[in-house]
Design a protein that fits this description.
Blueprint: H1 2-11, E1 15-19, E2 23-27, H2 30-41, H3 47-58, H4 72-76
Antiparallel strand pairs: 1-2
Helix pairs in contact: 2-3
Family: Belongs to the phD/YefM antitoxin family.
Protein name: Type II toxin-antitoxin system Phd/YefM family antitoxin
Organism: Lactobacillus bombicola
């Protein structure tokens, strides 16, 4: 068990512990939990939410935003 807990601390891994009756427990780092709670509590378009979301992307909890290709058609409407 110590080996798995070290993975949580050292490698920022999530460890799942299977239990009876199709139940399980997930062990995550305190820092990852902090950023998850922060993202859930803050308003979606706030700076605090953006920082929390960025931290979760950095930790591979959330996928990174897709790159949007420039579209000249959009800019043509302003000419």
């Amino acid at each position: 068990m110590k080996k798995y807990l070290n993975q949580v601390n050292d490698d920022d891994e999530v460890v799942y512990v299977a239990r009876a009756n199709s139940r399980s427990v997930a062990v995550i780092s305190q820092e990852k939990l902090y950023w998850m709670e922060k993202a859930l509590q803050d308003k979606e378009h706030s700076l605090d939410y953006a920082i929390a979301r960025g931290q979760l992307v950095k930790r591979n909890v959330l996928p990174d935003d897709q790159i949007v290709e420039s579209n000249d058609d959009y800019w043509e409407q302003f000419k």
